[in-house]
Design brief:
The complex is a heterodimer of chains A (about 130) and B (about 110). Chain A is mainly β. Chain A has strands at about 5, 10, 20-25, 35-40, 50-55, 60, 70-75, 80-85, 95-105, 110-115, 120-125. Chain B has about 110 residues and is an all-beta fold. Classes of the chains: A mainly beta (about 130), B mainly beta (about 110).
Chain lengths: ~130, ~110
């Protein structure tokens, strides 16, 4: 059974870089059928998509975060990572990693849904 | 950016009743509409993709419908475990946005 587990610091200072890693177990990250990505949820609020990556390094980012976000993949470790620079209190949230199912069609890659999620990790931005 | 508006914000119902949740898009998203369920302290769970396709393992009491700008998630008969927050999400051109959520609470 595929499992995802987030790891990283729970406290980050303002203006610094938030770094999280998601470790995939019970399956391989090397697959054309999936992308891997991050979603966050500020306390008491809704969900916000951050971005996705596939095993070959193709990425898609939320335009509102694109200037500060980098998602990378390490297939040898079956992991993918998130870096968010210049954080502020507004970046305080639960960060989830998730598997995104995709369909390969004649029109391109069609993402249909995030079907496996990590448990989430709370990141607080505070001095 | 495509904005998704969910209504109502809160739905108060009893077990066994039918729940009808709405999601309206600011412009057409074709059928690229996904529904998630989230319980307190848990990650979201994929329910419905492409507006009407149930994800693996999702009970038949959950159904989705709609296309273009108006979508509906229906729970035919609420079970105790269905009381949760439900989010819709669209994926136009790899730019995912979520609705604000509908909380289904026990009346």
């Amino acid at each position: 059974q595929l499992q995802l587990q987030e790891s990283g610091p729970g406290l980050v200072k303002p203006s610094e870089t938030l770094s999280l890693t998601c470790t995939v177990s019970g399956g391989s990250i090397n697959s054309n059928s999936y992308f891997w990505g991050w979603v966050r949820q500020p306390p008491g609020k809704g969900l916000e998509w951050i971005g996705n990556i596939n095993y070959s390094g193709s990425t898609y980012y939320n335009p509102s975060l694109k200037s500060r976000v980098t998602i990378s993949v390490d297939t040898s470790k079956n992991q993918f990572s998130l870096e968010l620079t210049s954080v502020t209190a507004a970046d305080t949230a639960v960060y989830y990693c998730a598997r995104l199912g995709v369909l390969i069609t004649i029109f391109g890659v069609d993402p249909y849904g995030m079907d496996v999620w990590g448990q989430g990790t709370t990141v607080t931005v505070s001095s | 950016e495509i904005v998704l508006t969910q209504s109502p914000v809160t739905l108060s119902l009893s077990p066994g009743e039918r729940a009808t949740l709405s999601c309206r898009a600011s412009q057409s998203v074709s059928n690229y509409l996904t529904w998630y369920q989230q319980k307190p302290g848990q990650a979201p769970r994929l329910l419905i993709y492409d507006a009407s396709n149930r994800a693996t393992g999702i009970p038949a009491r959950f159904s989705g419908s709609g296309s273009g700008t108006d979508f509906t998630l229906t729970i035919s008969s609420l079970e105790p475990e269905d009381f949760a927050v439900y989010y819709c999400q669209q994926r136009g051109n790899w730019r995912f946005t979520f609705g604000g959520g509908t909380r289904v609470e026990i009346k």
